[in-house]
Amino acid sequence: MQQQSNASQTQGHAQAKTEEWIQSAQNTTNATREKASNAAQSAEESAQDAKEQSAGFLQQTGEKVVHMAQGAVDGVKNTLGIGESNK
What we know:
Organism: Xanthoceras sorbifolium
Structural class: mainly alpha
Protein name: Late embryogenesis abundant protein 1-like
């Protein structure tokens, strides 16, 4: 009878430890999942920021090229005598 009682206590203790370990594993899994989600969100936001900065840079560069080309056209017109200042 004493052995059965000891066996029941040992089994109960083992069951409690098992449940504790399972809960700990679930908590660790949830924390890891949340960290991964946050990292993915941060990476997505960084990529979007980089994309917007690149678009702005390209637009500014394009505008500079257009102005330079217009200046070159105006210079050629003035050299050939067909610019606005020679009308």
